[in-house]
Design brief:
The complex is a heterodimer of chains A (about 325) and B (about 190).
Chain A lengths: L1 H37 L4 H13 L6 H28 L5 H14 L8 H6 L5 H10 L1 H9 L7 H13 L8 H17 L3 H13 L4 H16 L3 H17 L4 H17 L3 H14 L2 H13 L4 E2 L5 E2 L1 H13 L3
Antiparallel strand pairs in A: 1-2
Helix pairs in contact in A: 1-2, 1-3, 2-4, 3-4, 6-8, 8-10, 9-10, 10-11, 10-12, 11-12, 12-14, 13-14, 14-16, 15-16
Chain B lengths: L1 E2 L20 E2 L21 H10 L22 H4 L11 H14 L5 E3 L4 H6 L13 E5 L3 H13 L3 E2 L2 H4 L3 E5 L13
Antiparallel strand pairs in B: 1-2, 3-4, 4-6, 5-6
Classes of the chains: A mainly alpha (about 325), B alpha+beta (about 190).
């Protein structure tokens, strides 16, 4: 009996050892193949390797991680070239390549340390998660991001990162002189750049940081954009900036009354629902009996609606107005 | 059919596959591993073919019968517009329908879908990425044509929580938007 039990145990242990051996071998073989594919010049072959990695079938080794970093450098270089070529000739890099790079970033972004900063800076136009990652790196990302303020193919993203440093704990690494220098660069950008999204992004970053020079220099520009531009995003951003200035106390008196009239008309009739939502939020800050009546009307009548996945009809502007009314009540 | 892990087409679809051996014996479409709705007998229609394409083309997702639809639509987007595959069945996720409706409402005008769902064989024929979100049923390419239209569409989609591909990749002809990638992306606009 004892003999037969020990026989079974011996055979079980042999099976397990063989299984571990086979498993290790298969892992190694899989990793080698992936490394080979990642080194390919053809992105479609690299794409296949990334798909396998996303399946999680192969353990991350230091060799594999090293190869992935090299691929990151390659994609950053490639995407930089694509942006430049598009700027010069209008020829795009291809939607498919973009989808592959995004998949690649899903794999690499959680693995990288500050060594990857120069590459992530080149790729920051491919996901808000990359912007957040750069923000979190702080000091090592400072110079590379600042440099991109001069690259018109990616400067709005650079402004986003810098803006986050000016307003969050992640920016505590900035010395006071550097902080001033960064704000000076943003003012210069807002002043000199002719593209409205760049101007407004820089002004927004400054107003978020509570720098009132932005109010003195750019109030007229922002106010003009509240209603005059065709792009809803620019109108929405202008409203947000006005909201910052209102909270900081810079916007007051007669000017506040003028702004209020404009915002009321936008909350009621701007063609884009997300702009109306922003106007409604700003009205809650502005307050007053007239605002209350307007918000009540919007909460009853705004037409924007769509159906969510569960088949319910959503009225986003009406909902925003209800929330705004709740914020008005305690005043 | 035996695949080594990490090999092209290897999918651990068979519940009987011993994980320690890490070798998978494919049991055919709908054999489990990625959710219910399948069953070893398959769907009994062309969905079986489409499911097999996911295996054959190494897509990191093998749908089951229940993932497919022949009539999913929303107030402004019909099934026929969104199904740009080869079959009468397609995967069209609720998040795509909600995302497109929200985008349209933000945009304020009708939108033309250039490409929606693609089955893997079609995706391969047009040179799509191996894991294109178009095969997952949560991506769409919306026709643009000039910078102002591209910007307005991209910003509307971004406000609807989409990952929007930069214009330097997609070009001014269309805006690629999807609700499947990690997080959103509001890329630099067109000038």
């Amino acid at each position: 009996m004892l003999k037969s039990i020990s026989g079974v145990l011996l055979s079980l242990s042999l099976t397990l050892s063989l299984a571990a051996h086979v498993s290790g071998y298969v892992q190694q073989k899989g990793a080698r193949k992936i490394i080979e594919e990642l080194r390919s010049r053809d992105w479609r072959t690299r794409d296949l390797a990334i798909a396998k990695l996303k399946r999680g079938k192969v353990k991350m080794t230091s060799e594999l991680r090293g190869v992935l970093l090299k691929v990151l450098a390659k994609e950053a270089d490639e995407y930089g070239r694509i942006r430049q070529r598009f700027k010069e000739t209008g020829e795009p890099g291809g939607e498919e390549y973009g989808e592959y790079v995004r998949d690649f970033l899903d794999v690499i972004v959680p693995l990288v340390d500050e060594q990857a900063v120069p590459y992530l800076v080149e790729l920051m136009d491919l996901g808000d998660d990359i912007v957040r990652r750069l923000v979190s790196f702080g000091r090592p990302a400072f110079e590379p991001v600042l440099e991109k303020l001069g690259d018109t193919t990616i400067d709005v993203k650079a402004i986003q990162v810098i803006g986050a440093w000016l307003t969050t704990k992640a920016g505590e690494f900035l010395l006071s002189g550097e902080r001033e220098e960064v704000k000076r660069r943003l003012i210069e950008k807002a002043w000199r750049d002719s593209r409205p999204e760049v101007k407004l992004s820089a002004i927004k970053a400054l107003s978020d940081a509570g720098d009132l020079r932005a109010y003195d220099l750019f109030f007229e520009y922002v106010f003009k954009h509240v209603t005059s531009v065709e792009r809803p995003w620019l109108r929405e951003t202008s409203l947000r900036i006005l909201g910052d200035w209102l909270k900081s106390g810079a916007l007051r008196g007669r000017l506040k009354a003028v702004v209020k009239n404009k915002v009321i008309s936008m909350a009621l009739s701007d063609p884009a629902p997300y702009v109306r939502i922003e106007a409604v939020r700003l009205l809650a800050e502005l307050g007053g009996a007239d605002v209350k009546r307007v918000l009540e009307r919007i909460a009853r009548e705004d037409a924007a609606s769509w159906r969510d996945a569960a088949g319910r009809t959503i009225y986003p502007v009406r909902e925003a107005a209800v929330q705004a009314l709740q914020r008005l009540r305690p005043k | 059919m035996v695949f080594w892990p990490g090999e092209y087409g290897a999918v651990n679809c068979c519940p009987l596959c011993p994980p320690w051996l890490r070798v998978c014996f494919l049991c055919g479409p709908g054999s489990g591993g990625s959710g219910g709705g399948g069953g070893s007998e398959g769907c009994g229609d062309e969905r079986d073919q489409i499911i097999q394409e996911y295996v054959d083309f190494g897509v990191n997702f093998v749908p089951t019968c229940g993932d497919f639809t022949q009539d999913a639509s929303s107030a402004h987007f019909s099934f026929a517009e969104l199904n740009t595959g080869d079959y009468s069945w397609a995967i069209i996720r609720d998040r795509l329908l909600t995302g497109l409706e929200t985008t349209r409402s933000n945009y304020g005008y009708p939108m033309l879908v250039n490409s929606g769902y693609r089955n893997p064989a079609r995706n391969a024929r047009i040179g799509g990425a191996s894991q294109s979100r178009h095969m997952y049923g949560d991506a769409a390419d919306i026709a643009a044509g000039d910078c102002p239209t591209w910007n307005a569409l991209a910003e509307a989609a971004c406000r609807a929580g989409a990952w929007v591909e930069p214009i330097s990749l997609s070009g001014v002809g269309h805006v690629h938007m999807d609700w499947g990638h990690a997080g959103t992306n509001c890329p630099q606009t067109c000038n």
